[in-house]
Structures are given as structure tokens and as C-alpha cells.
Design a protein that fits this description.
8 helices; 3 domains; single chain; alpha+beta
Length: 389
């Protein structure tokens, strides 16, 4: 049975909240937390085992481990002074594992899978229960001081995104990375009291559309209008089609301005496959329905023109330098300004908009209904979604 909650007035669509009786099922996500490293040091609190990941054979076990060093040797992996003809091992603990890298100690729940790649460097994957993973993500996506309803909305979106990637990457060595290219994940170090409460109060809840997991994208600030996923990734999904957003006007990145030297932009573009002479002018050819740029035309001083998609231009110059694809261009001779709105790709939930909606006393299901119109909230443990879109 599905119980539908109608969000009144401002909401762009209905958000159904589904629950059904059934057995609880844990899911585990594989997070690539480090890649291409020559060696690593770790310690373990609690009873532990170091296993051959392929056979399950126990290589070492004990009550705790003060420090261990893992490195490569010609025939496989070396743990302290012991050499093993293996390429993959797993480290498990009843408490947590601390990984030491670059003068930083990071604690992780779950297991660490250490995989020696063909280049003899290591890939480290944290295999962890999904809800524990979300606890290590939430603090990095929103402030633990934000309103609880905004944090709950973010927890649902982050959990949905993770489950989507788990299905999409099930045949790969990991599901997500622990950085900005998936969701920033800090392990046990990143858990906070209030964000943990938000995870607990939204336990198991994800977004689905047409009985399939929704790729629940989100971003910092949309600049007044969310973007269609079709314009960026070619995904034609009604909950991700884009809509006006009046809630992020006071966000820290609602408005931004950046100055560039034309020669620097010329050099970056040429380093990425373009052939440009000194730039004389840059102007916008067209915009899409959200106000973001479809194409730019760059005119060199010799009159030659080059057309570049706005998304590609931002990717080359840097997504944290050009904060969004929604801006105006002001030429100033050998320099130019970009005056823009918002931060991020703009698809899905606007995090600062969600913050304001929560300040305005909207509940988390209303926030999700606004940014993902037509989607349903369901418990993945009780009503597993059928497939990917």
C-alpha cells in the first residue's frame, strides 16, 4: 500500500511515501577511498582478520593491531615482513580500521579491500553497510548545523544516489569514489551527532520513479532555476526536467564574479585540443530553458571563430573556477569578467534551496517533492526498486 503525501501550494509535483511489510535487508557499498598508492600503513581497533579476498583464507588475525605496513613485492603483496603471492586482500575489524596517509589518520568502519593493480600500485576500497556510508557522507554535503529537515532530505538524496551507483557499477571493483566525483566520504571521522540523527530518521528511504531508482543528483545552488538532466547527461526523466526555484536567492553562491586574462583561457583551450589565436571576443550564442549556456563563440583577433559548448568550456577552465554554466560575459580588452549565478551543474536538489525551505518550515518530503516532482519515497529494505531508469 502506498500512502501519498500531497505538498500544497508551491510544490511542483506529488511525492508518494511508500512502506510495505517485509524483511529487512542490509546493502553494502564499495567506496574507492584511495588509488594509485605505493604503500599504506594502518592500525586496527577490535578483533581483526586479514584475508585472501579470493579464497577467504585467513592470513593473520588477532585482538588488535597497533600498526601494519603494506607494500608491494615482485610476487604480490608484502604485509610487514611477510610476503604473499596475492593481488587482493581484505582487512576486517569488529570496531574500525585507521588508515594513515599524507600525515592524516582516517578511521573507517566495515572492511578495507586492498587491490594491487597491474601498475603495482594499490587501490583501497572500503566495503561498508549503506547506512553507515551515508553517515560518513552527510557532514561533507551539508552543515551539521543546518535544519533537520534539510539534512533528512540530503540523506535521502545521497542514499538514492549511492544505491543507483551500486546497481550501475555492480560488475566493477567499486561503486563510488570518496571524493567530489561521486560523494565526498570521510569515514567514521566525519560522523556528527545531528547528521547521524538525520540518517536514522530517514533510515532506508530512497527516491524512485516508475519503480526504478532515480539518479538523485544534487548541487549547491541552482541560481534560480534547476537544470534538466537531459541537457547534461541525456537523461529524459520528468523528476529531473528542471524548474524555477525561488528559495536559493540568499545562498552564499547565488551571485558570483570572476575575472580572467584572455591569454590564460586561450592557453587552457589549446591544451585541450582547440586551435585558438589571441582572443578578441567571447559571446553567448544560445541558452536553454534554465538560462544556462548552450554554446559560446570565441572570436580571435584574426577573425577566426570557434564554437564551444558551455558545459565543455566550464569543464576545461574548471568547475570550481566557473561555478556554474549560468553567467554573462563582459569583455574588457585583454581581460573579461564572468558574472554568474549558482554553483554546480544545477540538476536535481538545490542544497541551499532545501536549506531555505527547511527554514520556512517545510518537511523533508515536501523538499524532495519540490526538487524531484513525481518521484516516490520508498524504503529499499522493504520495497526493492526494480532496476535503473
Amino acid at each position: 500500500m502506498i500512502r501519498v503525501l500531497i505538498a500544497v501550494g508551491l510544490l511542483a509535483g506529488n511525492c508518494a511515501y511508500a512502506r510495505a511489510a517485509g524483511p529487512s535487508k542490509e546493502k553494502y557499498v564499495r567506496v574507492a577511498i584511495s588509488n594509485d598508492i605505493h604503500e599504506l600503513n594502518f592500525s586496527i581497533r577490535g578483533k581483526y582478520k586479514i584475508l585472501d579476498l579470493r579464497s577467504g583464507a585467513v592470513l593473520e588475525e588477532g585482538r588488535s593491531l597497533r600498526e601494519s605496513r603494506l607494500s608491494t613485492h615482485p610476487g604480490g603483496i608484502k604485509i610487514n615482513n611477510e610476503e604473499y603471492p596475492l593481488r587482493k586482500i581484505r582487512v576486517t575489524s569488529t570496531r574500525d580500521i585507521t588508515l594513515y596517509q599524507a600525515d592524516r589518520a582516517q578511521r573507517y568502519r566495515g572492511a578495507l579491500d586492498i587491490i594491487q593493480k597491474p601498475n603495482k600500485k594499490f587501490l583501497v576500497v572500503n566495503t561498508i553497510e549503506l547506512e553507515q556510508y551515508i553517515r560518513g557522507v552527510l557532514y561533507h554535503e551539508v552543515s551539521h548545523r543546518w535544519p533537520m529537515e534539510a539534512m533528512k532530505a540530503q540523506a535521502v538524496a545521497a542514499r538514492t544516489y549511492a544505491l543507483y551507483q551500486m546497481k550501475k557499477n555492480k560488475n566493477n571493483e567499486y561503486d563510488v569514489t570518496g571524493d567530489i566525483y561521486s560523494q565526498v566520504y570521510g569515514g567514521k571521522n566525519s560522523e556528527r551527532f545531528r547528521t547521524n540523527i538525520a540518517v536514522k530518521r530517514s533510515l532506508g528511504e530512497i527516491l524512485v520513479y516508475d519503480h526504478k531508482i532515480l539518479p538523485a543528483y544534487f548541487h549547491a545552488s541552482c541560481g534560480g532555476h534547476t537544470e534538466s538532466a537531459r541537457n547534461i547527461w541525456g537523461e529524459n526523466l520528468p523528476p529531473l526536467s528542471g524548474a524555477p526555484c525561488p528559495f536559493c536567492a540568499l545562498a552564499p553562491h547565488a551571485n558570483w564574479k570572476k575575472n580572467f586574462r584572455s591569454k590564460d583561457i586561450q592557453d587552457k583551450l589549446n591544451a585541450n585540443g582547440y586551435t585558438l589565436g589571441p582572443i578578441h571576443d567571447i559571446h553567448v550564442v544560445s541558452r536553454n530553458q534554465s538560462g544556462r549556456i548552450n554554446n559560446l563563440v570565441l572570436t580571435a583577433r584574426d577573425g577566426k571563430t570557434t564554437t564551444i559548448p558551455g558545459i565543455k568550456f566550464r569543464a576545461i577552465i574548471g568547475p570550481n573556477i566557473i561555478k556554474s554554466n549560468k553567467y554573462e560575459i563582459i569583455m574588457k580588452g585583454y581581460y573579461f569578467d564572468l558574472v554568474g549565478k549558482g554553483w554546480g551543474h544545477g540538476v536535481g536538489m538545490c542544497q541551499w534551496g532545501a536549506h531555505q525551505m527547511a527554514e520556512d518550515r517545510h518537511k523533508y518530503d515536501e523538499i524532495l517533492a519540490f526538487y524531484y516532482p513525481g518521484a516516490q519515497i520508498t524504503d529499499y529494505r522493504e520495497q526493492p526498486p526494480v532496476d535503473l531508469p
